[in-house]
């Protein structure tokens, strides 16, 4: 009876050791997978940023309003540039291997938008609205909080992304509207005081616009990397089989 009891203890200890070793291998494998996905997403974001010039030049915009009782005239926006893109970082990327859920934070410390404009329109055939000048808009501490899923079917890609935009501070410096400095000063004050609140209050609408754009940009950059991802996953699977 004593020998049987000792044998049972030995078998239980052996089984427990086997289970613990299997769990350790699985945890190590999951960590390697998380690292692969996180590193690949981080490298992809870095590649996207590095592919952009800083300042980023944006094409001129010309708008012609069809003559109507509501609005007539035209507007031009030229010399548009975005300075600060190169400072974009993704300090937090987490991939839940079990559910392939993605959480990511993208930070942009500050960005400067500069542009020239010319405007000459008539509102309701009564109210003229015109002006021209050089303008700047500074946005501080921009963050994009991204959640979604990672899908490996047909190559690694992200899907069902939800992007929430937050801006801590905005500084508008608009000039030349209706040739009235006092009006421009008042408009700048209103925008500076309310723009960030507007972004927060309109988060659902802005998210619906941004989410598909961010998803398409990330997936386009991920596509050429799928061969490397597949090789890394095969190496992990091969190493796991050898351990067994």
Structural class: alpha+beta
What is the H/E string? HEEEEEEEHHH
Uncertain segments are: 2-6, 16-27
Tell me the domain tally.
1
Alpha carbon gap, first and last residue: 34 Å
Helix content: 40-55%
What percentage of the residues does DSSP assign to strands (E)? Answer: 35-45%
| Number of strand elements | 7
What does the main sheet amount to? 7 strands, antiparallel
Average pLDDT score = 80
Q: Count of DSSP helices?
A: 4
| Radius of gyration computed on alpha carbons | 28 Å
Overall 3D shape: elongated
Concise overview:
The chain has 244 residues and is of the alpha+beta class. It is 44% helix and 39% strand.
Commentary on this structure:
By secondary structure, the protein is α+β, with helices and mostly antiparallel strands. It has one domain (2-54, 85-111, 137-243). The chain contains four helices and seven strands, in the order αβββββββααα. The chain has helices at 2-50, 181-201, 203-222, 226-243; strands spanning 56-58, 61-65, 71-83, 89-96, 101-123, 127-151, 157-173. Strands 1, 2, 3, 4, 5, 6 and 7 form a seven-stranded antiparallel sheet that branches. α1 packs across α3 (203-222) and α1 (2-50) packs antiparallel against α4. The protein starts with a helix and ends with a helix. 8% of the residues are buried.
Outline the fold blueprint:
Elements (H helix, E strand, L loop, with lengths): L1 H49 L5 E3 L2 E5 L5 E13 L5 E8 L4 E23 L3 E25 L5 E17 L7 H21 L1 H20 L3 H18 L1
Helix pairs in contact: 1-3, 1-4
Core attributes:
single chain; elongated; Lipid-binding serum glycoprotein N-terminal domain-containing protein; seven-stranded antiparallel beta sheet; about 240 residues; 7 strands; alpha+beta; To_sf; Haemolymph_juvenile_hormone-bd
């Amino acid at each position: 009876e004593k020998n049987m009891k000792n044998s049972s203890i030995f078998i239980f200890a052996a089984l427990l050791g086997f289970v613990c070793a299997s769990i350790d291998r699985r945890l190590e494998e999951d960590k390697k997978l998380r690292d692969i996905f996180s590193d690949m997403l981080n490298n992809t974001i870095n590649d996207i940023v590095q592919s952009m010039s800083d300042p980023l030049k944006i094409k001129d915009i010309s708008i012609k309003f069809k003559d109507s009782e509501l609005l007539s005239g035209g507007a031009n926006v030229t010399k548009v540039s975005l300075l600060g893109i190169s400072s974009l970082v993704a300090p937090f990327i987490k991939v839940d291997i079990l559910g392939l859920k993605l959480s990511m934070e993208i930070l942009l410390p500050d960005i400067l938008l500069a542009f020239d404009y010319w405007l000459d329109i008539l509102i309701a055939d009564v109210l003229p609205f015109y002006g021209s000048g050089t303008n700047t808009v500074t946005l501080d501490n921009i963050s994009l909080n991204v959640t979604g899923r990672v899908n490996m079917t047909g190559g690694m890609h992200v899907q069902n992304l939800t992007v929430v935009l937050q801006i801590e501070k905005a500084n508008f410096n608009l000039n030349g509207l209706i040739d009235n400095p006092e009006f421009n000063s008042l408009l700048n004050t209103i925008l500076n005081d309310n723009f960030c609140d507007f972004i927060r209050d309109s988060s659902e609408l802005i998210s619906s616009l941004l989410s598909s754009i961010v998803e398409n940009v990330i997936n386009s950059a991920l596509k050429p990397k799928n061969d490397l991802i597949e090789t890394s996953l095969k190496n992990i699977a091969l190493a796991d089989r050898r351990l067994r």
